[in-house]
Amino acid sequence: MDYEIIGITVLWTFLYGYLIVASIDFGAGFFSYYTKITKKNHITHNIIQRYLSPVWEVTNVFLVFFFIGIVGFFPSTAYYYGTALLIPGSVAIILIAIRGSYYAFATYGAKDSNFYSFLYGATGLLIPASLSTVLTISEGGYVSVEDGKVQLLYGELFTSLYSWGVVILAIVSVLFISASFLTYYASRAKDLDALELLRKYALVWAFPAIIMGVVVFFLLGNQNPEHYQNMLDIWWVFAVSFINFAIATYLIWKRKNYGTAFILVMLQYFTAFYGYGISHFPYLLYPYLTIYDGFTNETMAIALIIAFIAGLLLLIPSLYLLMRLFLFDADYVKGKK
Amino acid sequence: MIEYDPVIYSRILTALTLGFHVIFATIGVGIPLMIAIAEWMGIRRNDPHYTLMARRWARGFVITVAIGVVTGTAIGLQLTLLWPSFMQAAGHTIGLPMFMETFAFFFEAIFLGIYLYTWDRFKSKWKHFLLVIPIVIGATASAFFITSVNSFMNVPQGFNIVDGVLTDVSPLAAMFNPATPTKIAHVIITCYLTSAFILGAIAAYHIIKGNAHVYHKKALHLTMVSAFVFAIGTALIGDLSGKYLHEYQPEKLAAAEWHFETEAEAPLILGGILTEDNEVKYALEIPYALSILAGGSPDTVVVGLNDFDEEYLPPLWVHYAFDLMVFIGIYLAAVSAIFVFINWTKKWNAFTKPLLWAVVAGGPLSMIAIEAGWFFTEVGRQPWILNGVMTVSEGATTSQHVDILLYVFVVLYAILGVTCVVVLRRMFKTNPVERELEKRGISHTGSRIAK
Description:
The complex is a heterodimer of chains A (337) and B (451).
Chain A lengths: L2 H35 L3 H33 L1 H10 L1 H23 L5 H24 L5 E4 L2 E4 L1 H6 L1 H28 L3 H32 L1 H9 L1 H19 L4 H23 L2 E3 L3 E2 L7 H29 L3 H4 L4
Antiparallel strand pairs in A: 1-2, 3-4
Helix pairs in contact in A: 1-2, 1-5, 1-7, 1-12, 2-3, 2-12, 4-5, 5-7, 7-8, 7-11, 8-9, 8-10, 9-11, 10-11
Chain B lengths: L5 H39 L3 H35 L1 H33 L8 H30 L5 E3 L2 E3 L3 H5 L4 H29 L5 H35 L1 H8 L10 E3 L2 E2 L5 E2 L2 E3 L2 H7 L22 H28 L7 H27 L4 E3 L3 E2 H4 L6 H28 L3 H7 L12
Helix pairs in contact in B: 1-2, 1-4, 1-6, 1-11, 1-13, 2-3, 2-13, 3-4, 4-6, 6-7, 6-11, 7-8, 7-10, 10-11
Protein name (chain B): Cytochrome bd ubiquinol oxidase subunit I
Main location (chain B): membrane
Family (chain B): Belongs to the cytochrome ubiquinol oxidase subunit 1 family.
């Protein structure tokens, strides 16, 4: 296999990992705030805190991994995306900074503050919106390159249906993924009140999530016909995604197998995300940059792949330990430890 | 108003983010080691005071970690946003250590989460202690990898440029360049030193305020002994750094020392000011010292500023930053040595007000030394972003609006900094040591080494 393919697969996988863990985290922040203002905080507080507290820092690493990894494997992306994304990127930095620090202030600090949880909840929805800009502009039509000068066309970006579609898709997906995970977590904890409430959230957000998925699929047809055609060629991948969604929602609806339901939700996004990625191939930034002309030299590619494998050997047992202690330890989840 | 120039604004914004990040990064590298030492002492001596110390330090530490993480994420992204051409070149050559730094960070993040939430979960205390080791390793390893990236910027090697195209890249040669050993050693040991002093300053402050609890005395003793060891290490490595600069970046050493004429038996200049026609006034001159620092003997010839192309010289004010760093380093070594010595003789009382105040001052001073040291090493490399390869202006973004972002980030960091202090103060004020000792049923005299 080409090093380019390995490189983009590694990065895409980390982005997928970020999509799942960050969605759980962002959604939890929003639900945490929402239940607070609707005075249902006592129901969900424990579930959310017990899950989030040990893992919030890990979530952030997935993102760092992605953007350092992409500069390592595809240095030219630094030039194009770096120049074009100065403002959206900085907005994301600011939101992440506020969210991360105020989470720590509120959780480990001394005071339970409404303002802190507002910041935490609101930024959780704005971050996916600002980060999704990267995927939007990768489709082409939002960036101009003249005399080697890269510029983001804000007018195009803000008036485009497609870019707004992606933003809404990102937000509703966050809420759906998060609610379906927390439903599962509450069922593990045998916390029936929390389970009922979170199950309701999961069902409420299931339909907007799938509808926006379909809408964005068709909006892409206008934005980038070539990419759209590639997606139609592998339509069955998206069909599999839809079936996963249907079964997951059915299980949640019928109040059974929440664990399986969450795995199906993960598969739903896995197939859709990889289907999107594969049909985007070989472009990193349509039409300026492909994975072949943006790739690093061969020596660095091999070094990165070796480092990646060595790193995984270290990380997988550690992540397993983390999950065993906090996710799959029934006593911890129930709050007995 | 200065005219809009993305290069200037990018430099200021990067300096601002790094300057803010380095406060939390330094603590982030050093404090895990101090926590590990305290917890280890607690188990070895079966002294719950030390265990509580580790616990309280860890609790405060998380708050600073949070800001360290978010500002670290910020600088990681900002490098790409503000220096796209540099990152394009860097990706080809030092993508490896950057990538590995995130692994180290990942490793640390996983175990920090586990460590904080498993204090009472294991029967064996050693089991919990084992969890802090990956945190120490992860924290120190991230410093290791990211500093090797910075070393590369000082001595770029491990590649060739043929007609503007990078060839023959060797990631390991780029990573382990001549600057790497001294730079990494210096960064890591000063992180330890600074963290020991900051924790020592907190303990000393409590004792000054009339809190004679043995807990604070133990904390002060532990931190000062550690600080003394780290200070000796810092001095030794500082000497090696001088020899490195002499060999590989003589213009940086010459600028730091206002050394104009190339000569043997060169004196070291401490303090002083530089007049407009490059005359050094009011300085303390130590004969032969610069030659000895640079080459180990008085007859080492040290190249002077006059022998360099003026276009490629760093600004000469780096001398002030260099001196500030050195003076504070000496001060920290002296204070910790005096404290350890007095405590060791047992004839005098080390817990006297003047000495305690000196320790308190050492906390913020050590952080100022870190900042001064970084400003010296970064500005001392001007005008290069990759020494001898790419200038700063070639690496910067061409984007508009960097100025607005600068103002926004100033506000952001100010808010984060202030809230951090407020939260930390509140955290420890509402839950003082005495109350926590009582709550955990630890007696005040239950220790063997109470003084």
